Amino acid sequence: MPTGSARSILRRLHDVMASRRAAQAKLDEVVAIIAEELESDVASIYLLRDGVLELFATRGLLPEAVHVTRLAIGEGLVGTIAARRAPLNLAEASLHPAFAYRPETGEERFHSFAGVPIVRRERAVGVLAVQHREPREYPEVEIEALQTVAMVLAELIAAAGLVGQEPAAPARDPGPVRLQGLKLVEGLARGRAVFHQPRIAITRTVAEDPEAELARLEAGFRRLREEVEEMLSRAEFAGPGDHDEILESYRMFALDEGWRRRIREGIEGGLTAEAAIETVAQANRLRLSAAPDLYLRERLIDLEDLSNRLVRIVSGAASTAAARGLEGPSILVARNLGPAELLEYDRRHLRGVALEEGSLTAHVTILARAMGIPMVGRLPDLRRKVAEGDELLLDGMAGALVARPAPALVRSFESQVALRARRQADFARLRDLPAETRDGFRIAILINAGLRSDMSALDLTAADGIGLFRTEFQFLVSATLPRRERQVALYRDVLAAAGNRPVTFRTVDIGGDKSVPYVGTRGLREENPAMGWRAIRLALERRGLLAAQVRALLEAAEGRTLSLMFPMIAEPWELDQALAVVADARRAIARRGRPGPARVEVGCMLEVPVLAEVLDEVLPKVDFVSIGTNDLTQFLLAADRGNPRLATRYDWLSRGLLRFLARAVRDVQAAGRPVTVCGEMGGRPIEALALLAIGVERLSITPAAVGPIKAMIRSTRLAPLRAAMADWLDTPGTDIRARLLEVAESEGILLA
């Protein structure tokens, strides 16, 4: 695109919009301007009429196609853009699976295609597209120019009444509705639905006085920074933790000079302050939403939060629901949230959060966990099926939400809350009692953790230690490889919080579906990320990353015992290379005269099934083994644990799976090495009972499961159960689950 074209387009569009010509004449002039300024062979505008995208104006396609060519939402390239509300940029349009040829347009002469949605009030009301004869991918600057023009067009077509009013939402079922989503933060909550403020609709896009707009922007940035500092200073947490880094990264986004400079450039090009902010936000949305890196996709939420906040400031928009305050017990309903947005709400009345999107590693999820606010995400059509003020029941344990519950369901929910409180009280009474069976078998109960804030659960549960500390969170929330000093500080804090209780650190398990932007995973899309380039495979290829982490762990464990284990070991040579990294790091510390740990214990995780066949080679080299049941089970059963159609196939009480585990446990114990089972299997009472029956003596589980598992252990006679399990495993066709339930009922084993 020629230099200055965006500014020239805006200036000329301003003249068109100010003219007294008819709306159709204005659109015809707009496509002519776009084709000329972008030097494109085709420029076309499709608008939504009667629910269908109709070609309203074109320069380059056959004129007889105007008001004749029509595409449904989702049909063809144009329909796909409208359905997804996202641009397309294609060097060869006909190769796209959604391509739909319309002979009346004469478009067979053109190869490349780029289009952007025309959006008004979060609804796609049209599409702006350009085409060229030669195959070419459009540079980012041209796509951004098209998005800017589309924003201006939204204003023009709304003023001219060229598209109908937004269709009325279908009548909401007044009865109860249950939505199933993803559990993000555990807990139960009841309250009235409060809708989070949506994105501000921008109605004025072309600036009359750029200098005045720049002044408004600078004043807005000053106020934004004041608000952010004030908000973060009010944040109340139990103590230091991972939220510190999250809030600091949010602050850095607000202070980012590159963001400010790009918005200024938009204003200098002829946009209002609000339109320039939204243009930059759209560019970020386009760039980050398609990024394969989880970190980048999730930082988009923070940027959206800041952009919307800045637009609200410069436009003088009405206060948000957060600023107005909550009245009584409330559950926040939103598409998504930034971390600072959550902090704005009154903690006295905020009971829970329900999101249409959301993820386990999003910043707002981590903050909600630190604040003790139950949260459920991935709730489909949430804002359409729930109305402001609806009574909501949020179940963070099951990942579900019920709107407008019947009185009987409310009573049942309150009973569930009360029962949970009573059970927690019962479990609390077991806190200081040993996890010992009725016939004297002592079982070690450890907990899984991954955040500094998780360490408080050690004292709350009186667990024997941390059996699995997942170290990857610090890597997932950082834009760059965390510096060794930051890693040392985290690991030192964890060890200090543990006191004299053991902590086993798992080296970083990133890659696959937990990609980060600094290890070469950008653009890498794997068909099966769970079995892909991740964990020890990635760490050994990016040896500097592993070496830095091992050095940090060694330094943090000064004078203590350091236990570390490597994930996803499949072959003995992988373990050898990992051990070599540890040895090199210990020598480097010694050469520098720095103190290191008093003792280093090294282990590996058994989660790749083939490792069980080479344990005779591995066990002499390790001090312990941990069995990761989550991945191991899906690998053994060839059943994706995230696929609901395979839920019945992903069975921890499969006789074949238990036979495999029993053999592995025997082999490890015969070599004199302790074996711990990590993962969800050990945190479910009946499955944990099966593990004890095959010889497992150490469980590492979620803190919430400690009480139920200890109650199960203390009500069990283990010796007869182990004898019975050996017989069941040898008897074809035995239903292990049914047998365990029979024994539990006859023996009074608590499986709540």
Provide the gyration radius in Å: 30 Å
- Our count of helices gives 27
| CATH domain class name of the largest domain | Alpha Beta
Major sheet, described briefly? Answer: 8 strands, mixed
Q: How many separate domains?
A: 3
Mean pLDDT: 85
The CATH level-2 architecture of the largest domain is identified as Alpha-Beta Barrel
CATH domain topology of the largest domain = TIM Barrel
Spatial strand arrangement across the major sheet = 7-14-13-9-10-11-12-8
Low-confidence stretches: none
Shape: elongated
- First and last CA, distance: 66 Å
Structural class: alpha/beta
Secondary structure tally: strands? 22
Can you identify the CATH superfamily of the largest domain?
Answer: Phosphoenolpyruvate-binding domains
Helix content: 40-55%
